Amino acid sequence: MAENSTFPIEGSCDCQNIRYRVEAKPLIVHCCHCRWCQRETGSAFALNAVIETTNITPLTTDPEIIHTASQSGRGQKIARCPKCHLAVWSHYSSAGPLVTFVRVGTLENPDVVGGPGVHIFTSTKQKWVVLDGKVPVVSEFYDMEEIWSKESLERWRVLLPEVEKYRASLVPVES
Question: Is 171 helix (H, G, I), strand (E, B) or coil?
Answer without folding.
Answer: coil
